[in-house]
Design brief:
The protein is α+β, with helices and mostly antiparallel strands. Helix content is 15%, strand content 20%.
Length: 314
């Protein structure tokens, strides 16, 4: 088979090895020659496309021959889809690029990331403020050199030493007077004795009145600070018969309620086992006070104690 042009409307055999198939038969009119299509092995520069016209190497586009058929868009290069003059004649848009997210999604993602960053910053700021504020209080307490007052120690009381006690508290805390027999002043026929045992004084002695009419027993003492409204005036004694009494006065003022020395052991005449106590309420003043007992009737009494209390004893 020879190469070269073998007839009108047939491709050259040099380009197409099957050119003989397109030859017209003997006596058949030759086919109208259309635009020449390049062979499959034709070499062209990179990027050169010849659909709809011929493009030169320099980029100049050739003119399409009249009546030339438009190439099928299905076989056009993807970048020529939708271009003017490409197959199909209309505007065709290529497939979307799936590697790039839509603009709306990117904006939403940016706003979400910004909101999360703001929340994290606020949480960190609040946490830091709490930590530093609590640490500052601890440091202040640790650096404070002022000692605290121990109110629960074994050697100290529970009262705050910075508070000054009131007059009433001072009177309560002050030890109330207690008379020893030596502090009592017998007068008239009364005298100090110690023959009867069982007396509760330190030396076991007492003041014996022994029905001596007009005899007296006097006690003088001091009240520190503002006095209470009233005190309990206790007298320790011993009698062996009921009905023994003595009148008394406070700071020179006679009282209308004599001291009643009741016999609480009427079945016994033993002086040693009849030591008891009785009381009368008295009003005192700040400073020196004097209580005086006077025998003006039946007063066979032994006296071993005199003292003041704030409350009634059992």
């Amino acid at each position: 088979m020879s190469s070269g042009h073998t007839g009108a409307g047939t491709p050259d055999e040099g380009d197409d090895p099957f050119a003989y198939l397109y030859r017209p038969a003997d006596g058949e009119a030759p086919r109208q020659q259309g635009p020449r299509q390049p062979s499959y092995n034709q070499v062209r520069p990179v990027g050169e496309r010849t659909y709809g016209g011929q493009q030169t190497y320099g980029g100049a586009q050739g003119h399409r021959q009249p009546g030339a058929a438009s190439p099928d868009a299905r076989y056009a290069a993807p970048e020529t889809q939708g271009m003017p003059g490409a197959g199909g004649g209309g505007h065709r848009q290529g497939p979307p690029d799936r590697r790039r997210p839509p603009a709306g999604d990117a904006r939403r993602n940016g706003l979400l990331i910004g909101a999360v960053a703001v929340v994290v910053a606020v949480v960190l700021g609040v946490t830091a403020a709490i930590v530093f504020s609590s640490g500052g209080d601890d440091d202040t307490a640790a650096d404070d050199p002022t000692p605290t007052q121990d109110t629960g120690g074994d050697d100290q009381g529970g009262d705050d030493p910075s508070e000054e006690p009131t007059d009433e508290e001072t009177a309560d805390e002050a030890e109330l007077p207690v008379a020893a027999v030596a502090d009592l002043q017998p007068g008239g026929g009364a005298a100090v004795e110690s023959t009867v045992t069982g007396a509760r004084s330190d030396g076991g002695d007492y003041v014996a009145v022994r029905n001596a009419q007009g005899s007296t027993v006097t006690w003088t003492f001091d009240i520190e600070g503002e006095p209470l409204e009233q005190y309990y005036f206790y007298i320790g004694y011993s009698v062996v018969a009921d009905g023994q009494t003595m009148a008394f006065s406070v700071n020179g003022e006679p009282r209308e309620d004599p001291i009643d020395f009741k016999d609480w052991n009427p079945n016994s005449d033993d002086w040693e086992t009849s030591w008891v106590k009785t009381y009368n309420n008295v009003n005192l003043v700040e400073g020196e006070n004097t209580i005086q007992l006077t025998c003006s009737g039946s007063c066979d009494v032994l006296i071993d104690q005199m003292r003041l209390t704030e409350e009634r004893e059992g």
